[in-house]
Amino acid sequence: MTEEKKSIKDALEELSNILNQAQEENEKYLAEILEQTPYETKLAVTAWAIKHILAHAREGGSYRYLIYDRLGFDADAYGVLQTAGALEISNEFDIERMDNIKEHVREHKIESMKSLVGFCDEPGCFDTAGSGFPVEGGYRWTCYKHWNEHKNKG
Ligand SMILES: [Zn+2]
């Protein structure tokens, strides 16, 4: 490795350490604020956040849309909320991705993945499950048609 490459590597390592330290200090700062926050305020803020995150899950949108438009934060919140996991949450809520997975499971008739995507547990049925009910030795999760068949058997 040349001297120049070595110094670039050292500079990147130093920068990485500075960023990690800044992140740790920021997390400590946020934890201190939380310690001083009254219980009722924490409850109100948590309920408010969950409500907006759920709306994001249902309606979709980018990470920026979540933090700026839905939650009303400014650019300074980008890194703080990303560190807290908001970007991962936003990416998980990609509705088209789940639709694509369901389509794949349906197209390739993958029985073993049906419960993971919320499909009827009746073998060969790939309709969306909507009814859960206890049966002898377990629990069923089926589409309306198969729930009706079970119900009519008595
Ligand atoms: Zn079914």
How would you describe what is shown here?
This protein has helices at 3-36, 39-59, 63-70, 77-84, 86-92, 95-107, 144-153; strands at 131-135, 138-142. A hairpin with a 2-residue loop joins strand 1 and strand 2 (138-142). The protein is elongated and about 75 Å long. It is built from seven helices and two strands, in the order ααααααββα. The protein has a two-stranded antiparallel ribbon. The chain has two domains: 3-93, no CATH class; 96-153, no CATH class. The model has no long low-confidence stretch (mean pLDDT 91). With 154 residues, it is mainly α. It binds zinc ion. The site of zinc ion has 8 residues, from helix 7.
Structure summary, number of beta strands:
2
Q: What does the average pLDDT come to?
A: 91
Strand order of the largest sheet: 1-2
Cα separation of the termini:
77 Å
Concise synopsis of the structure shown:
The protein is mainly alpha-helical. It has helices spanning 3-36, 39-59, 63-70, 77-84, 86-92, 95-107, 144-153, and strands at residues 131-135, 138-142. Bound molecules: zinc ion.
